[in-house]
């Protein structure tokens, strides 16, 4: 019998499982109903495809999208896995042929839409065969709390009863704890059979840029990704069409996609993008759910999404092959006003939830200080403990120095108080600027002492300050009209005239570069990669399939890095299994051998991937921590590993965070630049607010001690306190 590991390597061409894949597969093989929540690109499909090849009978996969079924089946057939789908895209003859394959037991996986599964014809077909596994993809559609609830998904529960011996598996990429609970309850799953992988997509560079000249900004981003695939999301169909025309006129390879196009054109544009005939698709949010294209290198949000959940799902379409990808959100407060207008048309709970969602994405977009990943992961109930991710705009830029904003902050807070805490930020700013609009005059706020005292700042700067005061806890916002009121912290600050520090800028922030190269990125020969990609395109066009069905970008990247020149070497490359090596190996080896001979390139051995668990002592931070405990200093560790002091400190922090202790001594203090007085103030702050998060300490000291010093001082504090 084939093992999961042998199928992973020989059929799919991968050396190691991704996080939680093996645990989920083993749970399914033990015939336990399973809920698996994994991020887009996290390898959900293998969790049922590998068991399908080990079970005797049929695996039925319920999927809501025709394009996704077609895509999955094409890829499985390329791996030599017998698979079919049944849906309305097939001719009557093709439909009957696929049904016959199922009846004869010649198929291992059958893909169906939920509506198709519920028809008497399909239920009769399945009653004639042995069904071993029922997989429900996009399982959040079951839940009324899910973002894409579909009533027909609820009826799948009744179908389960017809196949009592089949194990059931539910898969989704976006599910909050409430949605997961609803899925488990509906499908009668046990809590112990739930697997939730990390939602962190660490290969995505996340960036928010002030929207100033969006068409030009889009061009600049696209130019940085020449000849690469990308998706640009727009709020409206009109915006999609206008941007598509603008870019096409300037020679860019683009197509539009939205519900206003007829079915034929929409399908044609999607197919052109999938097959790499077109570089860029410009779309409304209708695009992408059924796309399994792994080599999307950038996603641009031309307009603000409605929620963090929508944003996370849409950036999840980038970098599904695990290679670096760039996600840019162009942000302006005008987009917020536009979304607020549409929210105002809603009523009751629907309106309240929409406001909460919008406020969350606005806080995310306007936070210029903290790691971008934290609010994204927090939304799904996952904490992100690292102080920096090294792969977002905020973490990759020097911290913006805080300035004294006490006087404008006092003016704003006073105005909120004098307006009886009954108005939103926009109205307060109008009062400060001395506006004579109807609302200001109607409420006689032109007679307040704060009227017209804020003309030193413009409206954008005042709104920026208001949002900072909100995030710092000086004001709170309530109700659908975003009414502002003062907190006890604000009243205390006004009474004692305490200094307030924040960000005050003359102009919008300049876009930060995503050019910082991640250490894990593979070095490969660009010229050879381009030739291999062209070969892949030719073979894909000949076979009538998308290029990534032949090989992924990751596979071609490894070929261009290690120069394999034999069938045996080719099989060490990620994504090259026995079937693909047989089908496509000779053609690609011919290209590789010819290129290497002409350029005198020698084959490089590929080191096998090492599977490491959470307790693996070979991890870098474990080695660094143990070396430090053995007496090595921070400078010595920097020299040994050719890294910065910050990297050594991050490793030592992780070493302590996983329950290990560090030796006491003066070594760490030598790294700190803060004065002795500042150090004592930091220790006092740790006594006050604890060591879990550094931002409260940073804020308490008004930004006078930087984060690098705070990390070191936290370690010193914890060593002194015995690790507590």
Summarize it:
The protein has about 725 residues and is of the alpha/beta class. Helix content is about 45%, strand content about 10%.
Structure description:
The protein folds into 5 domains: 4-196, 3-Layer(aba) Sandwich (Rossmann fold); 204-379, 3-Layer(aba) Sandwich (Rossmann fold); 403-461 and 473-502, Arc Repressor Mutant, subunit A (Orthogonal Bundle); 526-599, DNA polymerase, domain 1 (Orthogonal Bundle), CATH 1.10.150.80; 620-720, Arc Repressor Mutant, subunit A. It has 33 helices and 17 strands. A 7-stranded parallel sheet has the order 3-4-2-5-6-1-7, sandwiched between helices. Strands 8-13-12-9-11-10 form a 6-stranded parallel sheet, with helices on both faces. Helix 13 (263-274) links the parallel strand 10 and strand 11 (280-283). Helix 23 (526-543) crosses helix 25 and helix 30 (645-657) packs parallel to helix 33 (707-720).
How far apart are the first and last residues' alpha carbons, in Å? 50 Å
Strand order of the largest sheet: 3-4-2-5-6-1-7
Q: Round the Cα radius of gyration to an integer and report it.
A: 28 Å
Q: Beta-strand percentage? A: 5-15%
Q: What best-fitting shape do the alpha-carbon axes yield?
A: globular
- How many distinct domains? 5
**Biggest beta sheet summary:** 7 strands, parallel
CATH-derived topology of the largest domain: Rossmann fold
Provide the CATH superfamily of the largest domain: P-loop containing nucleotide triphosphate hydrolases
Number of contiguous helices: 33
> How confident is the prediction overall: mean pLDDT?
85
